[in-house]
Amino acid sequence: MRFTTALKLSLGGLVLVSQATWAEIRIGISTSLTGPGASLGIPVRNAFAMWPQEMGGQKLVLQVLDDAGDPTIATKNARRFLEEKVDVIIGAANTPATIAIAQVANEAGVLHLAPNPVELPPGRDTWTFRSTMDSGFFTEGVLAHMKRSGVKTVGFLGLSDAYGEVYLKSLNQQAEKAGVKVVAVERFTRADTSVAGQTLKVLAARPDAVLVVAVGGGAALPQKALAERRYKGKIYHTPASVSGDFLRLSGKDAEGALVMSGPEQVPEQLPASHPGRKIAQAFVDEYETKYGAGSRTQFAAHVYDIGLVLEKVIPVALKKAQPGSPEFRTALKDALENTDGIPVTKGVLRYTATNHWGHGPDARALLLVDKGQWKLLP
After folding, report:
1. Distance, CA of 79 to CA of 88 (rounded, Å)
2. For 188-216, how does the pLDDT look when each residue is reduced to its tens digit (9 = 90+)?
3. Which residue among 232, 261, 290 closes a domain?
4. Per DSSP, which regions of the chain are E strands?
5. Phi first, then psi: what are they for 297, rounded to 5°?
6. Strand, coil or helix: what is 27?
7. pTM for this structure?
8. 318 occurs within a structural domain
9. What angle do CA 213, 343, 334 make, to 5 degrees?
10. How many domains is the chain partitioned into structurally?
């Protein structure tokens, strides 16, 4: 998906405008370019520079606005996009802001593509489709490994926001069935600079393993707190920990950490039979050519996948309606719900009217931090 685009800064944000003269498909993007979520939002923005200038013969106009990870700002951004008659809204980098955007998109009937595992009540995700899997899917994988490893008790050390909540809910729902008992639950905020108190309370319960639920570089804080107190049990993380910032900030304390992730972070280590290997490798090669060796990130991969999704469904929708119309928005949604499969970095997406997640079992991989690198485990 290589292309060249002109970049124009405006007061409203970064606008990517191609130089062609044909009709436009307008896409509004809200992500965290500043604030604690910038380590996620910046790779997201980078990935848009890997998109083609046009899809289905129509020019793409992408407008990127900063929400700083704040749901209130994300809501304002989404409403601004509606005023500007966008055909698609993409965002956000964190779960609380994504929930806010989903609410606006659902009310307005605008396609919302989320590079985030946002979980919504029934009926609230009619217009929201995700490019990553849900917490239950990844928690199932973590618990399966715990069971194989003889883990009987687990402590939860996670964020107190919506991202932490969905993983705690999934853990509570699935742990007993897997033969694992949750013996401690401690929460912290993204703004915290220490989790010493919470860590000591978790360790007082003497769990066989600890599940850390945090995001990007923020996951280094609990990882280091556990390592510094010489915790000898297994430390598991959720997909949002897979980042260069986590490895850099954790340093040697990251060794042995286990992360249930998507497979796109380690395409070189995937079996040849994996349906996402070729696309994931193409993504990594292009991203690291553009942004430097070792810069790959799953957050950028999620947006890369959204581009592949739109390349598939936009030509289908154009057969029914023109961009800028409610009919075109509906046609995009219908095309997604009736696709026969879209190859992406994680495998093959198959959305339906009742499944706006779309991934299969190949979208999950267990990674181990070994000598400062991600190593794929069976």
Report:
1. 12
2. 999 999 999 999 999 999 999 999 999 98
3. 261
4. 6-10, 13-17, 24-31, 54-55, 58-66, 88-90, 111-114, 128-130, 153-159, 181-188, 209-213, 234-237, 258-261, 342-344, 347-349, 365-370, 373-377
5. -155, 140
6. strand
7. 0.88
8. yes
9. 90
10. 2
